[in-house]
């Protein structure tokens, strides 16, 4: 049997937002088992984290319903929240997540009932297009006029954070950990969202068979 945690991020209401399952130090599982567990739970993504000998360092593998992802931000933030909860002490924690795509740093902070997680993936990596991008369609897709765009800042493509992509950004979020009594979040500026959280709910799942799906 393996314990997992049902976590929400990017939401102010429990059982909404981006849900995921977090497995902290599960028994040995191969890739096929991890994928089948993820498909059975039917979350957006599931993350499996294993603590390493280095302090506050984990190796993480993320799966969606179709396969393994080299990197995904919201499962990392949710897992960091669970690790903070499992530590059981301290208001500020720093974590190192080793993922297939790269290693990232995550900080978590608990204060006034709020758990804030911040993942720092470094500076964005821009791509040089083969030909200049036409600003008209881009502006239109954003509901803007071409005159709204700064001519000194031409459109520039960048990678997304999926399967081998190397796009990076910095953002903050909350893990709305499952328990009755979760209260609303409040915005605290451009760095991200802060919110009151409650303890995650823990469930058990068989390691040799598919676990039961979480009830919503």
Note down, in words, how this protein is organized.
By secondary structure, the protein is of the alpha+beta class. The protein folds into 2 domains: 2-121 and 161-205, Diaminopimelate Epimerase, Chain A, domain 1, CATH 3.10.310; 125-160, no CATH class. The chain is 15% helix and 33% strand. It has helices at 31-41, 73-87, 135-141, and strands at residues 2-9, 18-24, 45-51, 57-63, 68-69, 92-98, 103-111, 114-120, 170-173, 175-177, 185-187, 193-195, 201-205. The strands form 2 sheets. Strands 1, 2, 3, 4, 5, 6, 7, 8, 9, 10 and 13 form an 11-stranded mixed sheet that branches. Strands 11-12 form a two-stranded antiparallel ribbon. Strand 7 and strand 8 form a beta hairpin. The chain is globular and about 60 Å long.
Features:
33% strand; Diaminopimelate Epimerase, Chain A, domain 1; single chain; 2 domains; disordered C terminus; 3 helices; 216 residues; alpha+beta
């Amino acid at each position: 049997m393996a314990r997992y945690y049902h976590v929400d991020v990017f939401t102010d209401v429990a059982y909404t937002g981006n849900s995921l399952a977090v497995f902290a130090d599960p028994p040995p599982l191969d890739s096929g088992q991890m994928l089948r567990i993820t498909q059975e739970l039917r979350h957006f993504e599931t993350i499996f984290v294993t603590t390493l000998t280095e302090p506050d360092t984990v190796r993480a593998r993320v799966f969606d319903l179709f396969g393994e992802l080299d990197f995904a931000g919201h499962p990392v933030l949710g897992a960091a929240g669970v690790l903070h909860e499992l530590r059981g002490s301290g208001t500020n924690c720093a974590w190192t997540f080793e993922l297939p795509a790269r290693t990232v740093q995550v900080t978590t902070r608990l204060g006034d009932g709020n758990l804030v997680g911040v993942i720092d993936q470094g500076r964005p990596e821009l791509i040089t297009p083969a030909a200049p991008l036409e600003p008209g369609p881009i502006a239109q897709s954003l509901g803007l006029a071409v005159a709204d765009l700064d001519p000194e800042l031409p459109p520039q493509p960048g990678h997304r954070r999926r399967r081998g992509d190397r796009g990076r950004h910095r953002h903050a979020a909350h893990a709305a950990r499952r328990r009755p009594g979760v209260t609303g979040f409040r915005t605290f500026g451009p760095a991200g969202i802060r919110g009151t959280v409650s303890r995650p709910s823990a469930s058990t799942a068989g390691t040799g068979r598919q676990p039961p799906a979480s009830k919503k």
